[in-house]
UniProtKB/TrEMBL annotation:
Belongs to the GMC oxidoreductase family. This is GMC family oxidoreductase. Its cofactor is FAD. It comes from Labrys okinawensis. Keywords: FAD, Flavoprotein, Oxidoreductase. The keyword Kinase does not apply. Residues 428-482 form the Glucose-methanol-choline oxidoreductase C-terminal domain. One of its GO terms (molecular function) is flavin adenine dinucleotide binding. Residues 200-293 form the Glucose-methanol-choline oxidoreductase N-terminal domain.
Length: 496
């Protein structure tokens, strides 16, 4: 194989987006992806296969701080986790870049303000064909104009819930979504949240970024290639080679420039596996500051209400994003979950007959309660030999409990007398980020503000590991926007 100009490791939201942005440059680009293309198969729309049998979960184990194994919620396929995501493409709020004081600590400021990233948010929304409506969200940051596509419409039951919440003074807003709903439903009348997409209507990293990038003759994709480590040159400054395993055989490729985009956990693991101290690790911060949103499911039950929706996930609430409504600190974001059926509930309630769970589910409305996880250097990814160890320390639970409290009260006021909550398993990484963060001081961060390694001028990182804070919104659009910004920097300065 001829040596490419650029090797991109990973074809998820970051890797696919940066490949799309670099493709017109003419540089010879090789993308190495651990997975392959997700086939169009019956299990893609089978809730029992997805939720009860774990059909798509990877056959691997990570380990917690006590050495106990667990099966992580990461997926290896072209498009990465975006193939399964809820397609919520929210911008960080402007205040998220400034630093925010929370009840249990402070979220630090980013090395640049929101205005620096705003044009790339615009570009990312166009790339992922985001559906939405500007002006509904009270915390919405400044933007150059409305969305190019109207919002995904509320179903009858969801419109009723939106109206109920509006009547008690809340401000539901249409979630910015990357879904062509007509195409999605034409392939099966199911939700899209957590259902994998084989190019059937979800605007994910493969559909919107990777496939268009591969239309360029200078871009190649090699599937089922697991990158093991990066090999530095003898002077330690530049990355000389990328070592990967393909069909059981170790191979190497020697690019001029490397873009690491394997995800927050695996990108950190690759750097840590590449030398005794870890590459790009002068700061000692590679693998540290792991963040994972605090998430709970909240289900409101009203025996008089009938939820006959199919997909449900069309609006959110940011009324408590910047404060608790009483002059106190921020609490977080609330958004509808994808429709929760009895089939899905049975994955946790295995002893309850499914027909009973379906009857209950028709009387419920289902929300995701999301609060920011604060960066902490002791919350980390590390290696034990070849084992990935995830030592996640929850933070900011005061805010999370506060958000559950105000939403429980709001739902009861809106006519849902029974409200149930379930805290997501801490061993299931959700919106993982922060392990190779950007910064201005090489003593405190592995990367500069453009995602370039301070220690290795031909190494960039372009995935959620670069995020300084987790904020309290889905990270996908921010990862895409940062990748577009990094791509522009590479085109202008990479070989200087």
């Amino acid at each position: 194989m001829p040596s490419p100009d650029i090797v991109i490791i990973g074809a998820g939201m970051g890797g696919a987006t940066i490949a799309h942005a670099l493709a017109p440059s003419g540089a010879e680009i090789l993308i190495l992806d651990k997975g392959g293309q997700l086939p169009d198969r019956p299990e893609n729309r089978d809730a029992r296969a997805i939720f009860q049998r774990g059909f798509f979960r990877p056959e691997e184990s990570w380990y917690d701080s006590d050495g106990r194994p667990f099966n992580p919620g990461n997926y290896y396929c072209n498009g990465g986790n975006s193939k399964f995501y809820g397609a919520v493409l929210l911008r960080y709020r402007a205040e998220d870049f400034d630093g925010i004081a929370h009840a249990d600590g402070d979220a630090p400021a980013w090395p640049f303000r929101y205005g620096e990233l705003a044009p790339y948010y615009d570009e990312a929304e166009r790339l992922f064909k985001v559906r939405g409506k500007a002006g509904e969200d009270p915390t919405e940051p400044p933007r150059s104009g409305d969305f190019a596509f109207p919002p995904v419409p509320d179903e009858r039951a969801i419109a009723e819930v939106r109206e109920r919440l509006s009547r008690i003074g809340l401000k539901p807003f249409s979630l910015p979504l990357g879904v062509d709903i007509d195409t999605w439903l034409s392939h099966g009348r199911t939700p899209w949240d957590a259902f994998p997409d084989a190019r059937t209507g979800k605007m994910d990293a493969e559909t919107c970024a990777l496939l268009p990038a591969l239309e360029h003759a200078n871009v190649r994709l090699k599937n089922h290639c697991e990158v093991r480590r990066l090999i530095p040159a003898s002077d330690g400054r530049r990355i000389e080679a990328v070592e990967y395993r393909e069909a059981g055989e170790l191979k190497r490729v020697t690019p001029r420039l490397v873009v690491l985009a394997a995800g927050a956990v695996r990108s950190a693991a690759i750097l840590l596996a590449s030398s005794p101290e870890g590459l790009a690790n002068r700061s000692g911060m590679v693998g540290r500051h792991f963040m994972n949103h605090n998430l709970s499911a909240m289900i409101g039950v009203d025996p008089r209400f009938t939820n006959d929706s199919i997909y449900q996930k069309t609006f959110g609430l940011n009324d408590f994003y910047l404060g608790d409504g009483k002059g106190g600190p921020p609490l977080g974001n609330v958004q509808l979950l994808g429709r929760v059926s009895g089939t899905i509930l049975k994955s946790d309630l295995r002893k309850v007959p499914e027909f009973m769970l379906n009857a209950v589910a028709r009387k419920t409305i289902d929300f995701l309660i999301m609060s920011e996880d604060l960066p902490d250097p002791s919350s980390r990814v590390r290696l034990d030999g070849e084992k990935i160890v995830l030592e996640w320390r929850r933070s900011n639970m005061t805010a999370h409990e506060g958000l559950k409290g105000v939403m429980r009260q709001a739902l009861k006021q809106a006519g849902f007398p029974i409200v149930l909550t379930h805290l997501f398993d801490r061993k299931t990484p959700s919106h993982q980020c922060g392990t190779i963060r950007i910064g201005v001081d090489p003593r405190e961060a592995p990367l500069d503000p453009f995602g370039r390694a301070f220690d290795h001028p031909n190494l960039f990182v372009a995935d959620a590991s670069t995020l300084v804070t987790s904020a309290a919104v889905n990270p996908s659009l921010t990862v895409a926007a940062l990748s577009l910004r990094t791509a522009k920097h590479i085109r202008e300065h990479a070989y200087s």
